[in-house]
Design a protein that fits this description.
The protein contains 7 helices and 3 strands; from the N terminus they run βαααββαααα. With 184 residues, it is mainly α. A 3-stranded antiparallel β-sheet has the order 1-3-2. The model is unreliable at 69-74 (pLDDT under 50).
């Protein structure tokens, strides 16, 4: 089994959510008014905490499918530091080059999901795009977790095969059944 250790930083995620919502507000025509509606401030911390826990539960459900041995693969948890941690045991044929992609896609999913939930409250028209992004990142995580390495194929030397085929032709031409068929 190949261990896959996943760590998503809560402070980094919340910062990315704040930056995304601020950018969303600034790029709109009515930036001054919209910034007050969309910007993430400390008063919204309890609401964002709810979104974080919901997202942890969703990701835990996704990752739980890939836990092969529950005793050695603890369920994903939000630890004392508030970060998301999970340890998965992937099959031996899993493409372990996908590890960074799994973590990056999960981080992007956390941000997109939380922004989508936030936008659904303060600016519903903008939430649809973030919902699509969250689903795309979720699917990317699944694809990365399902990636498997192919067994290497044996290398065939064609020059040897051609010589072998020539020998078989020569041997078949002297075979009595082949000579009888030629007489017909």
């Amino acid at each position: 089994m190949i261990p896959l250790d996943i760590h998503i930083s809560k402070p980094q995620t919340l910062h990315a959510v704040a930056m995304t919502t601020a950018y969303q507000a600034v790029k709109n025509d009515d930036a001054a008014h919209l910034y007050d509606r969309v910007a993430v401030v400390r008063a919204d911390h309890s609401l964002l905490e709810t979104f974080w826990r919901d997202c942890c539960a969703i990701v835990g459900h996704i990752l739980q499918e890939y836990c092969r041995q529950p005793a050695t693969c603890p369920s994903p948890s939000a630890s004392q530091d508030g970060d998301f941690h999970a340890l998965l045991l992937m099959p031996e044929n899993w493409d372990d080059t996908q590890s960074p992609s799994v973590v990056t896609s999960l981080q992007a999913f956390f941000v997109a999901y939380m922004v989508e939930r936030w936008m659904a409250l303060v600016w519903p028209e903008a939430s649809t795009n973030h919902s699509v992004q969250a689903k795309a990142h979720q699917e990317q995580v699944r694809l990365c977790l399902e990636a498997r390495q192919r067994k290497p194929r044996p290398h065939i030397h064609f020059s040897k095969v051609k010589n072998h085929e020539k020998e078989n032709k020569d041997n078949n031409s002297h075979h009595p059944a082949v000579e009888a068929a030629d007489d017909l």
